[in-house]
Design a protein that fits this description.
It is built from twelve helices and 13 strands. It is an alpha+beta fold. The longest helix is centred in the N-terminal third of the chain and has 21 residues. Helices cover 41% and strands 16% of the residues.
């Protein structure tokens, strides 16, 4: 399969698709409920702004967390300016939405009202906020007992401008980066991903006018850019320059992705190339179908096709290995040092005296 066909299919498979209809319906119903209380207006869907990955149009299939700002009437600002103001405004929004969705899990979560729909697994995080003259928003923080400022419009504008300059490749790469994140367990939020993609395009104009025939080289160079990034605790977000924290180093997994890109490019035109791209981006990459395979029904299933995947934390699994003639050592250490693993050994998953042991033969 030609490389442009692979990436065209990948991007098509990553589209949010039919879920966007449900997202829009939920968004509008939430807005109507809040407009009825705060503005005494029936059926209006005005005064809201979708932010986050969905608002920047970089979300992919399986998106579950939807971020939404509800713009409060300016006339209410003084009424909620005290220390109790953040809690009172969030409680009011919670009560409005609970009245609209009485059987839904709705609760205040520091700066937002979280609405967890069970029928389609969407979670809306609704943030009531006052809009400022410069387009920024003041939002409530119950922990700080004060109002803080966010600038999502500048992030949306920066994404749009970069996307236009790069012939839509900014959003294409941001979506592919999300597929890499979910496939390889990369701990990184959506704003960090979009910021890294934005920074990559600020270092090169090589792909500003390139089509999907060049995407193999584009993602290769992107992962090379990532693996060479210095360790940082945070980046300044695209457009807004607000801090976006780095929860865990992404460089080692970027290096693995870079090497797989090199291998996939070398195998271009073969079924092996598709498989290598799958190791980078997951099951959204199509497999090359050979003539001998066309008579068989494809029954392959993937976890992300049945359940929403959102990598937000990392997990390390290890155990102590005891085998005859060798000192006891951790499995991770032995694999790193390429120590021989014998057929008969004991695996100890706990360091306590009551450790559970499994004997392998």
């Amino acid at each position: 399969m030609k490389v442009d066909k692979i990436f065209d299919a990948l991007l098509e498979n990553l589209k949010v698709g039919d879920a966007s209809t449900t997202v829009a319906a939920r968004r509008d119903e939430i807005t109507k409920a809040l407009n009825q209380d705060f503005r005494s207006v029936e059926g209006s869907t005005a005064n809201r702004l979708m932010v986050g990955s969905y608002g920047r149009h970089t979300a992919i299939r399986g998106v579950s967390d939807l971020d939404m700002i509800y713009i409060l009437p300016a006339s209410l600002r003084s009424s909620y300016s005290s220390e109790t103001g953040p809690r009172r405004i969030l409680d009011r929004v919670r009560d409005d939405l609970t009245a609209r969705y009485p059987n839904t899990d709705i609760r205040v979560d520091q700066c937002v009202v979280r609405v967890q729909f069970t029928s389609n697994k969407f979670k809306f995080e609704v943030q009531p906020a006052f809009e400022n003259s410069d387009g920024s928003f003041d939002y409530p923080d119950t922990k700080a007992k004060s109002w803080k400022t966010t600038k999502p419009r500048k992030e949306i504008t920066a994404t749009k401008d970069c996307n236009n300059r790069t012939s839509t490749n900014m959003r294409h790469l941001a979506r592919m980066a999300r597929a890499w994140k979910d496939t390889n367990g990369v701990v990184a939020g959506g704003l960090l991903i979009d910021t890294l993609v934005y920074r990559f395009f600020s270092t090169t104009s090589e792909y500003d006018d390139k089509g999907s025939l060049w995407f193999g080289f584009m993602v290769r160079d992107f992962f090379e850019f990532l693996m060479n990034e210095p360790d940082k605790d945070y980046y300044l977000a695209l457009g807004s320059n607000q801090r976006v924290n780095v929860k865990k180093r992404f460089q080692p997994k970027a290096k693995k992705a870079y090497n797989r890109c090199i291998e996939a490019i070398a195998k271009e035109g073969t079924a092996s190339a598709n498989k290598k791209w799958r190791e980078v981006f997951g099951s959204a990459v199509p497999l090359e179908v050979t003539k001998s395979a066309r008579s068989f029904k494809d029954t392959e299933e993937f976890i992300e096709s049945r359940y929403l995947v959102d990598i937000s934390e990392s997990l390390a699994i290890d155990c102590k290995v005891t085998q005859k003639g060798w000192r006891t050592a951790s499995l991770r250490e032995m694999l790193k040092n390429k120590t021989l693993l014998l057929p008969s050994k004991e695996l100890d998953s706990s360091s306590s005296s009551a450790a559970s042991r499994t004997r392998m033969t």
